[in-house]
What we know:
The chain is mainly α. Helix content is 67%, strand content 11%.
Amino acid sequence: MRRLAVSLLLVAVVMVVQAVAGFLTGSLALISDAGHMLTDALGLGMALAAIVAARHMGHNEYRTFGLYRLEILAALANAVLLFVVAGYVIVEGVRRLFEPVEITTGAMLIVATVGLLVNLIAWRLLREGAGQNLNLEGAYLEVLADLFGSIAVIAAALIVHFTGWLQIDPILAIFIGVYILPRAWRLGGKALRILVQAAPQHVDIGAIEAELQEVTGVVGVHDLHVWSLTSQMEVASVHLVVEDHIDSHKVLGEARHLLRTEHHIDHATLQVEPESNDHCRELTW
Length: 285
């Protein structure tokens, strides 16, 4: 967690420096790279928040599911912010193609180089943990992708300095802005999918129902629900209708084992109902 926090601090500081320098030097490519580094900071921040929430923000009598959803709300807000940043960069970039703006290449080159070095440091810090933790892997990939954004800004500064071709700055800025858009779309889509409690994309509800139906003694399955509490944390609930004289403890054990080992669902609420019990019916809403 310490490496993640250090990486977040470094990226956040350089992001602010790049944004300020971008406006002062007139470089739209530098501003767009700051927006790209914002995606790094957001990814790192969400990964850190998830770890902190898991360790220190457990559930209580008022928060029976803890505060894990804060990560998802933050992800949705971040996606909206990224759309705004990318939209500004693209619109302003198109305008500057026809109305070039003079830029200060020296300061632009220095700041972009600092950004590249910080991304290299963050990449090195996160590389080891990326293979052990999914959140860290996502943050690692964000930082790795931003390396190319910093290289693009350095290239723009050098081209403008040696050739005077001002249009290269907005061209690369538009490229980075377009690169951000699909990532913002995926982030927002994942957040909304969790917030509306849709079944995770990798979960086959039909397969789960069929496999539960095959558990010894089960004669019916209904009210099966699978959703994500937060990223990488699936939850399920289901009603199992069993033969009247079957051992319900054995059914529960086998069903839980199936969900845990075959579908990686550790938190499941299972209601076992005797076949002769007609008080529970499948919900129609």
